[in-house]
From TrEMBL:
<dbReference type="InterPro" id="IPR007213">
    <property type="entry name" value="Ppm1/Ppm2/Tcmp"/>
</dbReference>
<dbReference type="Pfam" id="PF04072">
    <property type="entry name" value="LCM"/>
</dbReference>
<dbReference type="GO" id="GO:0008168">
    <property type="term" value="F:methyltransferase activity"/>
</dbReference>
<protein>
    <recommendedName>
        <fullName>Methyltransferase</fullName>
    </recommendedName>
</protein>
<keyword id="KW-0489">Methyltransferase</keyword>
<dbReference type="GO" id="GO:0032259">
    <property type="term" value="P:methylation"/>
</dbReference>
<keyword id="KW-0808">Transferase</keyword>
<dbReference type="InterPro" id="IPR016874">
    <property type="entry name" value="TcmP-like"/>
</dbReference>
<dbReference type="InterPro" id="IPR029063">
    <property type="entry name" value="SAM-dependent_MTases_sf"/>
</dbReference>
Amino acid sequence: MTNLGHKIPSRLLQPLWLRSRESMIDNGLIYDPIAAAACQRCHLSAECLSGDIDQKQLLHATLTVQCDQQVSKFLKSNPSGWVVNVGAGLDTRFYRLDNGRCHWLELDINENLLWRQKLFHTNERYYLRCGSVGDDHWIDELPVPNNVPVMIVCEQALLDCTKTQLSKFIQLLGRRFNHAEALFVVAGDRCNTMIGKKLGSAEYQHGLHQPKHDFTGWLPWIENLSVTSPIEHNCTRWKAWQRWLVKFPLFKHRVTPLLIHMNW
């Protein structure tokens, strides 16, 4: 067994491991054999194992399946469309959802892309490019043709951004793409509370109280925008929290990361 894990930063490895772990349980929310195979070659650090792992796993798996559902809908409507995954980390969505026709671009810093190359196989419709949420040099160099259907996905990287960085990134995409569909995971403003941490949330660099208001302020020409909480997902493992939410409905979009789905 090759011990790659001690070299991989835990912030990269833990999401991969959580998906692998979810794949091994009965009636898991996702099945990710690519993650499971990669994790067999890795040695987990203590940081990966910290906290309530079962709840972190449920939160991550729920957000993952919610993202998968939206990307699948996009590819069903646009089989030859482009997916631009910003801050890809060790995401394996391409391998789960590839329809044999789409084009997929993974965008991240060089160090993370090197780990992708070591752990995952390549594909002729699958591209790696250097770039991150925090810079803008890559935006005009994307090999995405004009006037093709595009979905921008950012599942983890925005959680490490301040609100100012988040607004700049959204406006950058709005300037680059005349029309696009987008899928973002952002943090509610009460994630760092005791309840938020019990739900599996961590310390994030921003917290949005009214995400719809914020996003439409940053990009006024958004046509449609929805906000989805992982607690809303139809899963028996969320039932206790769903009962709690009935009593405190104002917290639905405040105590966990949220899925923003929009188009312009």
